Amino acid sequence: MSDTIFSKIIAKEIPAEIIYEDDIALAFNDINPQAPTHFLVIPKKPIATINDIQENDREIVGHLYWVAAKIANELGFAEQGYRAVMNCNEFGGQTVYHIHLHVLAGKPLGWPPYQERLKIE
Predict the structure, then answer these.
(1) Which of 30, 76, 78, 91 is the most exposed place for a label (fewest CB within 10 A)?
(2) What is the C-alpha to C-alpha distance for residues 43 and 52, in angstroms, rounded to an integer?
(3) So where does this one cross the membrane (predicted)?
C-alpha cells in the first residue's frame, strides 16, 4: 500500500488534531466535518479497504469501534447517539485508501430527517 495522508498523520509528518492514540489506533478530528462532532478512528496498521481486512485483523477493527465508544462517552454524546461508519471503495465514498471509521454526532443523523419523524410519530 502506498503512503496515504493517514500514514503521514500516524508518522507525525502531517499535523492533525489528535484526540486519542494508543499502540493500535489513532483518532483525530476530521478537517471537513459533516456534523458538529466528526472525527476519524484509524488503525496504525495500513489496511486499504474493508475488503482487505484479514481474519487476524478482527481485533484491530473491533478496537476501532471500542475507541469510538470510549471517545463518545468521554465527550458526552454516547447516550444521545452518534453514527459510526466506514466507506469502502469508490462507489462507497472512500477517498483515502486506509480504512477509517467516521464518527459523527451533535445533531440528528437518521433518515428520514429528525423533523420529519416528529411529524410522523
Answers:
(1) 91
(2) 13
(3) none
Backbone angles phi, psi at 37, to 5 degrees: -120, 125
Range of the domain at 93: 5-120
Residues with catalytic function: 100
d(CA 24, CA 83): 21
CATH of the domain at 47: 3.30.428.10
Q: Say whether the peptide bond before residue 112 is cis (omega within 30 degrees of 0).
A: yes
* All residues at 6 or more sequence positions from 74 whose CB lies less than 8 Å from its CB, including other chains: none
User: At residue 10, what is the residue type?
Assistant: I
Number of separate domains in the chain: 1
Give 109's pLDDT tier (boundaries 50, 70, 90).
Answer: confident
Kindly report the average pLDDT of the chain as a whole number.
92
